[in-house]
Write a structure and sequence with these properties.
The chain is an alpha/beta fold. It has 4 domains: about 5-160, Rossmann fold, CATH 3.40.50.2300; about 165-340, 3-Layer(aba) Sandwich (Rossmann fold), CATH 3.40.50; about 345-375 and about 385-425, Helicase, Ruva Protein, domain 3, CATH 1.10.8; about 430-488, Orthogonal Bundle (Arc Repressor Mutant, subunit A). The chain is built from 23 helices and 16 strands.
């Protein structure tokens, strides 16, 4: 029996029994952190009575991380106002080193600013010390349920959504993104099925490449046929996909097999599906429902075994609500949906994609691959790339074509983006930064760590402690700041 089943059965069998009672196994522990011994003892009694669990109590916040290293904690109840390391700072460290453990803030402060700060920094929930026992028990129950539900989902993901061998993917879709890795695992499971797939995402994120990977992973013996349906009127769409018989219309001197037939036992990729005309939507719906179609001018129905993969950068859900897109077709296409996140939401991919594209450019231009410095790569994360990977590709091709540089440094990046009118969010921070570091260069030269410490402190001060904003100012991801803070 799985942990989730045990939890569900316990609720179903006897609602009067606390559902967490048998849910927390002996190997899992609850941690209480509070510098007030009396409140720590009071909270521990509530936990032990209601969850049959003797919690690990810690008064000194400096011991929290080393204790967590012993493993198997399913919940942390954390006070905010403590000596040595305050709760918000400790929360940052916990979220970085132990992101799977939910943290419930237990605080005497009731001001909304404190609560908002805690939630922004990753707290799962919060309770005030004056809110009462029932509210406390409810918050603990919810957090523990979340922990074990996520553990069960991770287990299911390993069993059923394991991405497995990505050797084909890694050579074609370069990524460091954990979100993309999860998507690849999902693709592996849905690719061999006959059901349709809808790929959504902004222009330039790689929807067509994802469709090609689905075909590669499907194991289907037939071909992959690609059709851009944007701008096709109903007649052209029907003729293109379903073909026609002799005499179907003026000039139809012979029979034509449509592209659906060409993709038999393979994949038919329909790009820009959001632009499909209403009449054509009806015909596509029939194909999806019955795997059948009529060639133009024919009364004979044709059966086909073709997997449909469609892609769009439009909001089909909103279009279905306004009547621009048929709801029944929308739900058919949404049987499996893959949404590709834009590059600005996975900026960790800028590094490997840039290196990959530079190698590709060098091969096409028959030149030595330009090297790119780390500061240049960091500077490139300061742009949002509304055109996504396609825009990044165009930028790099154009930049290299201008001078065939041997090395791409931050000055070259800054100059190019400025000339092209592309705004780098951290560009102003680069110019003259040495004058504002407040470090004496005439004495001992500062180390990289000292400079990094100072820059991150400056960014956090300017962002008023908001790690996401600080990361944007520096052009790095939040995990880098978490890692930096945890090493202090």
């Amino acid at each position: 029996m799985t942990l989730f089943e045990a939890y569900s059965n316990q609720i179903t069998c006897n609602l009067k029994i606390n559902p967490i009672k048998y849910f927390i196994m002996d190997t899992y522990k609850i941690m209480l952190v509070d510098d007030d011994p009396s409140h720590l003892e009071y909270t521990a009694r509530i936990v032990e009575k209601n969850f049959t669990q003797t919690p690990v109590c810690i008064e000194d916040s400096r011991k929290v991380l080393s204790t967590l290293d012993t493993g198997d904690f399913c919940l942390i109840l954390l006070d905010l106002n403590m000596p040595h390391i305050n709760g918000l700072d400790l929360l940052t460290d916990i979220n970085f080193k132990f992101p799977e453990i939910p943290v419930v803030i237990v605080t005497a402060a009731e001001d909304s600013e404190t609560v908002v700060s805690a939630v922004r920094q990753g707290a799962f929930d919060y309770v005030t010390k004056a809110s009462g026992k029932n509210r406390f028990i409810a918050a603990v129950s919810k957090a523990i349920k979340h922990y074990f539900t996520m553990k069960e989902l991770d287990k299911l993901k390993e069993e059923f959504f394991d991405p497995g061998d990505h050797s084909v993917i890694s050579h074609r879709f370069v990524t460091n993104s954990s979100r993309m890795t999860r998507i690849f695992g999902y693709m592996k499971n849905i690719a061999p099925t006959p059901t349709p797939v809808l790929i959504t995402g902004e222009t330039g994120v790689g929807k067509e490449l994802i469709a090609e990977l689905i075909y590669d992973m499907s194991g289907m013996k037939g071909r992959m046929i690609k059709v851009n349906v944007s701008g096709l009127d109903d007649t052209v769409f029907s003729d293109t996909l379903f073909g026609h018989v002799k005499g179907a219309f003026t000039g139809a001197d012979g029979m034509r097999e449509g592209l659906v037939k060409s993709a038999e036992n393979g994949v038919l990729f329909l790009d820009e599906i959001g632009d499909l005309q209403q009449g054509s939507q009806v015909k596509l719906l029939r194909l999806l429902q019955d795997n059948s179609y009529y060639p133009l001018g024919s009364d004979s129905i044709r059966q086909i075994n073709t997997k449909i993969v469609a892609a769009t950068n439009r909001d089909l859900k909103k279009m279905s609500e306004t009547g621009e897109f048929r709801k029944d077709l929308y739900y058919r296409l949404m049987f499996h949906n893959i949404t590709i996140p834009p590059l600005r939401e996975r900026k960790e991919d800028i590094f490997p994609v840039t290196e990959h594209l530079l190698a590709e450019i060098a091969e096409k231009y028959n030149i030595r691959k330009p090297s790119i410095t780390a500061p240049a790569l960091m500077l490139m994360t300061g742009y949002d790339y509304p055109g996504n990977v396609r825009e990044l590709e165009g930028i790099l091709y154009d930049m290299v074509a201008e001078t065939y540089p041997e090395t791409i440094d931050e000055k070259l990046i800054a100059d190019y983006f400025r000339r092209k009118g592309l705004k780098l969010e951290i560009q102003e921070e680069i110019a003259g930064i040495a004058d504002r570091l407040d470090i004496d260069y005439r004495g001992s030269f500062p180390t990289i760590k000292e400079v990094s410490d100072h820059l991150i402190k400056m960014a956090l001060d300017q962002a008023e402690g908001n790690i996401s904003k600080a990361a944007q100012l520096l052009g790095i991801n939040r995990q880098t700041i978490y890692r930096h803070l945890s090493e202090q």
